[in-house]
Design a protein that fits this description.
The chain contains seven helices and eleven strands. The chain is of the alpha/beta class. The strands form two sheets. The protein has an eight-stranded parallel β-sheet with strand order 5-3-2-6-9-10-1-11. Bound molecules: fructose -6-phosphate. The site of fructose -6-phosphate has 14 residues, from loops.
């Protein structure tokens, strides 16, 4: 890959990818224990989060000084709802890694006023000194966080209407019942995401091959929010072989 700002690494499989990234995050946190981490939910980072939990359990990583900000949350759900992204993160990462609850930042899907909640979140990120390392997944429709494709994109944290495909891919959190998936969410905006110092996007499986190919080789367009990552100076894309199968080349991980 000749682009110095966007490096791509292709791993043999998603287990190796997750393990390698977990080791790297642990060593970054070892060097700078007060890292501010931006986190994503979804199926893709689950292995990574479990690997981080395993490193913590073996005494090989200390996350007690880390601050976290998650990208998004369903609108209309209290944090304790079993389908909330907060519950997902508690289950897959926070309770496994000793990340202190008072250092965890989340959008509150049951806040009285969505706009005020979004402004509070942007202020909280700025107050923490910005995000050092943002972990991202990508939707098959090219969304990043829950910035859905459309005619325009919001820069700051905002309330979003979820596409039908996004609601379907979140149905597992609601017992497989797509009708129970909220129709709206709060999400960090593309500007908020692009302000992170480093971005690491993970994509695995052949269902991601098309959007990854468009992200890497296509034009920058609001029809594929992920394409805006091309504007960032320090993006790493970590793929397994199926996600790289449509002509995306990278280093071997
Ligand atoms: C959710 C988020 C989304 C997901 C994307 C991929 O916090 O940031 O952009 O990363 O929907 O989801 P999975 O990993 O389930 O394919």
């Amino acid at each position: 890959m000749s682009d110095p700002y966007l490096t791509i690494t292709v791993f043999r499989d998603e287990r190796v990818l997750a393990r390698t990234l977990a080791e790297r995050i642990a060593s970054t946190v070892g060097e700078n224990p007060r890292q501010v981490l931006g986190l994503a939910t979804g199926r893709t980072p689950v292995r990574l989060y479990h690997e981080l939990g395993a490193l913590h359990a073996r005494g090989r990583a200390d996350f007690s000084h880390v601050t976290t900000f998650n990208l998004d949350e369903f609108w209309g759900l209290p944090p304790s709802d079993p389908g909330s992204y907060r519950t997902f993160m508690t289950e897959h990462l926070f309770r496994r890694t000793g990340i202190r609850p008072e250092q965890v930042n989340f959008l509150n899907g049951s806040a009285p006023d969505a706009d005020a909640e979004c402004a509070r979140y942007d202020d909280a990120i700025a107050g923490a000194g910005g995000i050092d390392l943002q972990i991202l997944g990508i939707g098959t429709n090219g969304h990043i966080g829950l910035n859905e494709p459309g005619r325009d994109l919001a820069s700051r944290t905002h309330r979003v209407a979820l596409k039908a495909s996004t609601r379907r891919s979140n149905a597992a959190l609601f017992g497989g019942d797509v009708d129970r998936v909220p129709k709206e969410a709060l999400s960090m905006g593309m500007g908020s995401i692009l302000r992170a110092r480093r971005l690491v996007l993970i994509a695995t499986g052949k269902s991601k091959a098309k959007c990854v190919e468009r992200l890497v080789h296509g034009p920058i367009t609001t029809k594929l929010p992920a394409s805006f990552l091309q504007l960032h100076g320090a993006v790493e894309i970590l793929l397994d072989e199926p996600a790289a199968q449509l002509g995306v080349r990278g280093l071997h991980g």
